Amino acid sequence: MILDGKGLAARRLELLKEDIIEGGLTPTLATVLVGDDPASHMYVRMKHRACEQVGISSVNISLPEDTTTNTMLDRIHQLNEDSDIDGILVQLPLPASIDTQAVLSAIRPEKDVDGFHPLNMGRLVTGLEGPRPCTPKGIMTLLQEYHIPIAGKRAVVVGRSVDVGRPIALLLLHAHATVTICHSKTEDLPSITKQADILVSAAGKAGIITRDMVKPGVTVIDVGTNQVNGKLCGDVAFSEVEPVAGAITPVPGGVGPMTIASLMENTVNSARNRCGPFM
Ligand SMILES: Nc1nc2c(c(=O)[nH]1)N[C@@H](CN(C=O)c1ccc(C(=O)N[C@@H](CCC(=O)O)C(=O)O)cc1)CN2
């Protein structure tokens, strides 16, 4: 079975549009984009397009590559103080010269629609309510909507990044999976991935997950967005893994669109909750 993230995201955006109208909400998202990376520009454009589609106002602040950490902190401070702004998103990665952690930590936690602020990360670890990072949230929505059993199942996450690997491992753990995180220093990766009922690959390496590394019936979630010869492809060798998998996300059309839908949901929740239960 192909897990159709594109279709599911479109349906969730339609529902969100109705929620916004019925709730009389006027959410506003601010994005901050630094530099000229074409992929980052494309993702930010996609986010603004989704905002327009569901009825979220959006503003984009584009800054040059040589922007300093202090300038970023000033801009974040202005957005924090702007009562018209419900959500702030800093598109990642930032140029290496900028202190990413300082910037993310400067966003007011109640406007942190990426869920990357240390306070919101702490909420994730403890299981308290709060905004969840968009890609992991989107993966959980996909699993739930397709009724993939999680409790008691063995989940293996390949990749330990702060924005995807670690948070998805925690969300799967909260859903009562038995979770293993693998990374670049993991020895004998196939012996671990073969045990997975749910395999999430967020390694960022094209084709790293091959047929001999999965057990029949596994649910495979491919977070990879790798460019190979100008073509977008995931971490999973799709054509050889798909026939043995019970369910699998394609790239494109799987996790990516769910990331954007989750951002829209976090922005609407932020508009609802500001001065509400999170703070
Ligand atoms: N502040 C953040 N930065 C980044 C995040 C994030 O969640 N927050 N995630 C990624 C990039 N990303 C969103 O920003 C993202 C990646 C991919 C897609 C997507 O829908 N991709 C399409 C294919 C698009 C194409 O043609 O290339 C798909 O998979 O179908 C959306 C968002 C890093 N930065």
UniProtKB/TrEMBL annotation:
It comes from the Archaea. It holds the Pfam family THF_DHG_CYH_C. GO terms for molecular function: methenyltetrahydrofolate cyclohydrolase activity; methylenetetrahydrofolate dehydrogenase (NADP+) activity. The keyword Amino-acid biosynthesis applies. CDD domains: NAD_bind_m-THF_DH_Cyclohyd. Its EC number is 1.5.1.5, 3.5.4.9. Keywords: Amino-acid biosynthesis, Histidine biosynthesis, Hydrolase, Methionine biosynthesis, Multifunctional enzyme, NADP, One-carbon metabolism, Oxidoreductase, Purine biosynthesis. One of its GO terms (cellular component) is cytosol. Homodimer. This is Bifunctional protein FolD.
